[in-house]
C-alpha cells in the first residue's frame, strides 16, 4: 500500500485497483447533510425548525396501547418501526462524536445536539413512563414490513414492547444507559438541568441491566428477531454501558463492575449489536491520556482489535474489496465501515495526544496508520471508489436515487394529500424505476457488495436501505476530517 502526492492524491490499495482523488472530499458538506438526514427519520410531532419539509407529523399516539406517551424518537431505517436497541446505539455514537469532535463540528454542533436530543427525549420517556419497565420499541415489525406506506399514513398496529425484571433485557437496557450517559456529557455545560436528568436516569437503567440479566431477544422473540436480535449476547452492552457511566461519573463502582465482567472476547467488528471494541477504545482513553495502568488491559484489547482490522497486519482478519472498502457482511456493510472507521480515527486521536505507538507483530502502527485507513473508508463512501459514486444521498454528482425508504419513495402529503394505505405504495411506487420523489438528504445506504458493485435498486434492501446507525457513526469522522482538510 503506497501513498503518493502529485496534482491529485492517489492510493494504491490492492494490486487490482488504483483510486485517484482530486483533492479531498468536501467533508464539511457531507457533515451538514449527514446530520440533516436525522430530520427525515423523525417520528412524532415535528418542530417549526424542521428543515426536511416533505416530512410531516406521524405516530402521535405511540404508547397509547400501554396508556403512556411514547411519541418521538426515530424510525431506524426505511421502515416505520421504532427499535430502541439500534436507536440507542445511534444516540451513543452521535454523542461520542459530539464529545470528541466538538470543535471541528463548528456550527453543526447545534444540529448534532438537536439530533441527540430528539432521541434522548424519547428514551427518557421509555425509561420513566412506568416503574419497573423499560419500553424498548413501538410498532409490530412483522405487520409493518408487509406494508409500503408513509409514516404519516401508518395504519399498522403500534404494539408497545418492554422489558422488566421478569422479562429482562440487559442488552437493550445497557445500550440505553450508555446513550443517556453519553448524552449527559454532551449537555453538561449547555443544559445542566437536562444533563443531570439524563445521568440520573442512566444510572437507574444501568442498575436494572446489571441486576436482572438476560437477552431481550429471549424475552421478546419475533418482535425483535430477526430484525435486531442480540446476536452477541448482553455482556458487551454491560461493558459498554458501565464504561459510559464510568466516564460520566468517575464512580469506582463501575470500574469494579467492569473488572468483574471478565469480558475478554476478541473481536474484529463493531456495530449496534457488538460493542466490545467500542468499550475498549473508550476505556483506553484513560490508559493513554491519563497514564492509568489499571486500564492497560483495555488498551491491549483495543490494539488487538486494530491489528485485526489493519490490512497490512499479520493478524488481520478483515477483508477488503478490490477498490479498498472494508468488507464485513453482505447486508448493509457500510454500517460496519462507519462504526469501525470511528474507532480507528478516535483511537488515533488518543495515540497522537499521548505520542503512543504499538505493534501488530513486527509491524509498527502509528496514529497516522489508523487515521489514514479511516480516511480512506470515508473517502470511499463519498465517491473515491471504482464507480466514482457517493453512497450518501444528495452528496456529489452521482449518488443513489432509488433508496429503500418508504417516506422518500412515496409522494409527500403536500403533493398527494390522500392517504396511501398499507398495500397502496407497492404499485406504482415501490416497484417503479423512477427516482424517489423526496430526497432523504444525507442518508448513507447499505452500500456496494464485495466486488464494489452497486445496483441502484429500491427492492434490494440489503444494499439500498439507509439506517440511522450508519450515519450515527459517520458524523464523528466527518467532523474530524472537516477540521483537518476543509479549512
From TrEMBL:
Please name the top-level EC class of this enzyme.
Answer: hydrolase
Q: Where is region (Disordered) located?
A: 440-462
Tell me which EC number(s) this protein carries: 3.2.1.4
Question: What keywords appear on the UniProt entry?
Answer: Carbohydrate metabolism, Cellulose degradation, Glycosidase, Hydrolase, Polysaccharide degradation, Signal
Signal peptide stretch: 1-23
Q: List the catalytic activities from the record.
A: Endohydrolysis of (1->4)-beta-D-glucosidic linkages in cellulose, lichenin and cereal beta-D-glucans
GO BP terms: namely: cellulose catabolic process
Recorded superkingdom = Eukaryota
Stored Pfam families: Glyco_hydro_9 (PF00759)
Q: Which GO terms describe its molecular function?
A: cellulase activity
Pinpoint the Glycoside hydrolase family domain residues: 27-477
The family classification in the record reads: Belongs to the glycosyl hydrolase 9 (cellulase E) family.
The protein in question is named cellulase
Species in which this protein is naturally found: Nelumbo nucifera (Sacred lotus)
> Gene of origin?
LOC104588077
Amino acid at each position: 500500500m503506497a501513498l503518493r502526492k502529485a496534482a491529485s492524491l492517489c492510493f494504491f490499495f490492492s494490486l487490482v485497483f488504483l483510486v485517484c482523488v482530486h483533492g479531498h472530499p468536501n467533508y464539511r458538506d457531507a457533515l451538514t447533510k449527514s446530520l440533516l438526514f436525522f430530520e427525515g427519520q423523525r417520528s412524532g410531532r415535528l418542530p417549526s425548525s424542521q428543515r426536511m419539509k416533505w416530512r410531516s407529523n406521524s405516530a402521535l399516539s405511540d404508547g397509547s396501547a400501554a396508556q403512556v406517551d411514547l411519541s418521538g424518537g426515530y424510525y431506524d431505517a426505511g421502515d416505520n418501526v421504532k427499535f430502541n436497541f439500534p436507536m440507542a446505539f445511534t444516540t451513543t455514537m452521535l454523542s461520542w462524536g459530539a464529545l470528541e469532535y466538538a470543535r471541528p463540528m463548528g456550527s453543526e454542533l447545534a444540529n448534532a445536539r438537536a439530533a441527540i436530543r430528539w432521541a434522548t427525549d424519547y428514551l427518557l420517556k421509555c425509561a420513566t413512563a412506568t416503574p419497573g419497565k423499560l419500553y424498548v420499541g413501538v410498532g409490530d415489525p412483522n405487520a409493518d414490513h408487509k406494508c409500503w406506506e408513509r409514516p404519516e399514513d401508518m395504519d399498522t398496529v403500534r404494539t408497545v414492547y418492554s422489558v422488566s425484571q421478569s422479562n429482562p433485557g440487559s442488552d437493550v437496557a445497557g445500550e440505553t444507559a450508555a446513550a443517556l450517559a453519553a448524552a449527559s456529557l454532551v449537555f453538561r455545560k449547555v443544559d445542566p438541568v437536562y444533563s443531570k436528568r439524563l445521568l440520573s436516569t442512566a444510572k437507574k437503567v444501568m442498575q436494572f441491566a446489571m441486576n436482572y440479566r438476560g437477552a431481550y431477544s429471549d424475552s421478546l422473540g419475533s418482535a425483535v428477531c430477526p430484525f435486531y436480535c442480540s446476536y452477541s449476547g448482553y455482556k458487551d452492552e454491560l461493558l459498554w454501558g458501565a464504561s459510559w457511566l464510568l466516564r460520566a461519573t468517575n464512580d469506582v463502582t463501575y470500574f469494579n463492575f467492569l473488572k468483574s465482567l471478565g469480558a475478554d472476547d476478541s473481536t474484529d467488528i463493531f456495530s449496534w449489536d457488538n460493542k466490545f471494541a467500542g468499550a475498549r477504545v473508550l476505556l483506553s482513553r484513560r490508559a493513554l491520556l491519563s497514564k492509568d495502568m489499571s486500564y492497560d488491559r483495555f488498551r491491549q484489547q483495543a490494539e488487538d482489535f486494530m491489528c485485526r482490522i489493519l490490512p497490512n497486519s499479520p493478524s488481520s482478519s478483515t477483508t477488503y474489496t478490490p477498490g479498498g472498502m472494508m468488507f464485513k457482511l453482505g447486508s448493509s456493510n457500510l454500517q460496519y465501515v462507519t462504526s469501525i472507521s470511528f474507532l480507528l480515527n478516535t483511537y488515533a486521536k488518543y495515540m497522537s495526544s499521548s505520542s503512543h505507538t504499538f505493534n501488530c507483530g513486527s509491524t509498527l502502527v502509528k496514529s497516522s496508520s489508523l487515521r489514514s485507513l479511516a480516511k480512506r473508508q470515508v473517502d470511499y463512501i463519498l465517491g473515491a471508489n471504482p464507480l466514482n459514486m457517493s453512497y450518501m444521498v444528495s452528496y456529489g454528482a452521482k449518488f443513489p436515487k432509488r433508496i429503500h425508504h418508504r417516506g422518500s419513495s412515496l409522494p409527500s402529503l403536500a403533493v398527494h394529500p390522500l392517504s396511501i394505505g398499507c398495500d397502496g405504495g407497492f404499485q406504482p411506487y415501490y416497484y417503479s424505476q423512477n427516482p424517489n420523489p423526496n430526497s432523504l438528504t444525507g442518508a448513507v445506504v447499505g452500500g456496494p457488495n464485495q466486488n464494489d458493485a452497486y445496483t441502484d435498486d429500491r427492492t434490494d434492501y440489503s444494499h439500498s436501505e439507509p439506517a440511522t446507525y450508519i450515519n450515527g457513526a459517520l458524523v464523528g469522522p466527518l467532523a474530524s476530517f472537516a477540521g483537518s482538510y476543509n479549512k
